[in-house]
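Sequence, please.
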């Protein structure tokens, strides 16, 4: 895997993705860099994300066309089962990585004969920030 990320902009973008607690969008990256008064063009952000994805450093997810793409760093063992939680109110996408998911996948396969493609699995609902605003959920 080729990893030549010597430019300051690339290092900043990669660090931001690595340190993000959830999936991050190109718009999130641009906003963060702008707030820190770091001059990185939108085109540079998108080119860098494309390069990172092509080099196998990050994974790109497009859950729906309205929300656009989001990214996260690929772990050493990217075969670990994980799901995504998508907030119906704010659109936030959360990478869910938990031991229970393997049990869930095994149950669904053993009892229902269905193998889940966990990297593409999205569970819709409301995040903790939006839940109080939706009392009838």
């Amino acid at each position: 895997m080729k990893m030549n990320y010597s430019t300051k902009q690339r290092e900043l973008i990669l660090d931001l993705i690595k340190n993000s607690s959830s999936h991050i969008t190109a718009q999130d990256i641009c906003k963060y860099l702008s707030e820190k008064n770091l001059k990185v063009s939108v085109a540079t952000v998108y080119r860098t994300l494309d390069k990172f994805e092509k080099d196998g450093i990050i994974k790109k997810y497009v859950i729906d066309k309205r929300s656009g793409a989001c990214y996260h760093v690929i772990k050493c063992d990217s075969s670990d089962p994980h799901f995504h939680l998508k907030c119906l109110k704010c659109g936030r996408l959360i990478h869910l990585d938990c031991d229970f998911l393997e049990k869930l996948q095994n149950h669904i396969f053993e009892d229902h004969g269905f193998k889940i493609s966990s990297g593409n699995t999205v569970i819709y609902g409301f995040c903790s920030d939006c839940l109080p605003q939706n009392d009838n959920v």
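The radius of gyration is 17 Å.
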